[in-house]
Amino acid sequence: MTTVAGSAPEVLAAAEEAIARGSKSFALASRLFDPETRARATLLYAWCRHCDDVIDGQELGQGRVASADPPAVRLARLQAATDRALSGTLSGDLPFDALALVARAVEIPRRYPQDLLEGFRIDVEGSQIATQEDLLTYCYHVAGCVGVMMALVMGVAAADHATLARASDLGMSFQLNNIARDVAEDAARGRCYLPHSWLADEGLSPETHMAPENRAALHRVVARLVALAETYEASAVHGVPMLGRRQAWAVLSAGRIYGGIGRKVREMGPRAIDGRAVTRRREKLYAVILSAPEALMRARSPGRAVPPRQGLWTPRFV
To answer: Are residues 7 and 153 in the same domain?
Structure first.
């Protein structure tokens, strides 16, 4: 792998600004990386963030950005620009130059960036989340594949499918927690990522789940989502022994921070639906402190047996 920390400083600076403004949790965890890994992770984040913003019509995950083009046209443009970037071509378009620099430095099979774009296609087409399988497929495509790419950025071999599957688990746990936090926000945008079958179990539907009288039943669905996220979070930690100590620390810290979001939603009860659970800076720092000894312990024991990923959603590795 080649280095990116000293190349195209203007691209890296723009990516650093994107991460600082777009995700304080990711920004904090990434500080634990060595400089080269942090630079690669930041560049990858910048591309992911940009693509997400283009599809959602936002800027750094906030507000609304007017666009005359329908989402399908925006997605097609993202696809074309991503294809160019994956060939290593610098075009002057900073988010895609960021991906191009990562593609030059790290062996990232083309399927993983394409998997993320497939997740955006699911959103653009308004595909229904009818079952738990639909939910997990969606979570892989918008977050699990990002976990895989992050593992590759951290030096995991593209052929190490066992570790990449654990990295996918971590990304999926992040997305499940985000969905649990954003139920009301998603509903306001005409979206429902809770499986329809789960809603039906509580006598709800995508049309009725946000009714005030259904808050208690809806929160039971959300708590079920958080429990599923914890299953994937617990699986992900078994990939940590394949990482360096600083990388392990960053990954475990991020897992605790994002897991804390879901656990807070569960603990708040039905009133969590009407607010937006957040983790405060002191809570994030506490997660970082707690993760340090665990990272040291796990990094020292790469040979110990780990439980199988039985029943968990698994990418179709090629």
So the answer is: no
